[in-house]
């Protein structure tokens, strides 16, 4: 699924340099991840009991993944945003 990064109604910069990033805002878990630079995400999807790893996520795409938390360890994507559409 390919989308323009400006099509999201709300978005938050993903920044795990200081630790894990949780999406426990009033918006709830994000419903997509815009990846600015190809890489990996380690995190927990909304409703899941354990973390998973997604490797080689393509840049320039909003991936339809509903994360509750993205982990610092193992996450390599950069210039990326969590989006709520």
Could you characterize the architecture of this molecule?
Residues 1-6 have low confidence and may be disordered. The chain has a four-stranded antiparallel sheet with strand order 1-8-3-6, with no helix packed on it. Strands 2-7-4-5 form a four-stranded antiparallel sheet, with no helix packed on it. The chain is globular. 0% of the residues lie in helices and 40% in strands. The chain has no helices and eight strands. By secondary structure, it is an all-beta fold. It has one domain (5-84).
Strand content: 35-45%
Number of strands: 8
The low-confidence runs, each spanning 5 or more residues with pLDDT under 50, are: 1-6
Mean pLDDT equals: 88
Order of helices and strands: EEEEEEEE
What percent of the residues sit in helical stretches (DSSP H or I)? Answer: under 10%
Q: What kind of sheet is the major sheet?
A: 4 strands, antiparallel
Question: Which key phrases capture this entry?
Answer:
disordered N terminus, single chain, 40% strand, 4-stranded antiparallel sheet, 85 residues, mainly beta
Summarize the structure.
By secondary structure, the protein is an all-beta fold.
SSE layout:
Blueprint lengths: L9 E4 L7 E2 L9 E4 L3 E7 L6 E6 L3 E3 L3 E4 L10 E4 L1
Antiparallel strand pairs: 1-8, 2-7, 3-6, 3-8, 4-5, 4-7
């Amino acid at each position: 699924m390919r989308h323009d990064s400006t099509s999201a109604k709300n978005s938050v910069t993903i920044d795990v340099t200081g630790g894990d990033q949780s999406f426990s805002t009033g918006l709830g878990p994000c419903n997509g991840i815009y990846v600015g630079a190809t890489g990996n995400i380690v995190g927990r999807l909304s409703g899941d009991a354990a973390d998973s790893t997604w490797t080689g996520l393509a840049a320039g795409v909003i991936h339809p993944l509903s994360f509750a938390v993205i982990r610092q360890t193992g996450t390599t994507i950069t210039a990326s945003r969590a989006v709520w559409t």
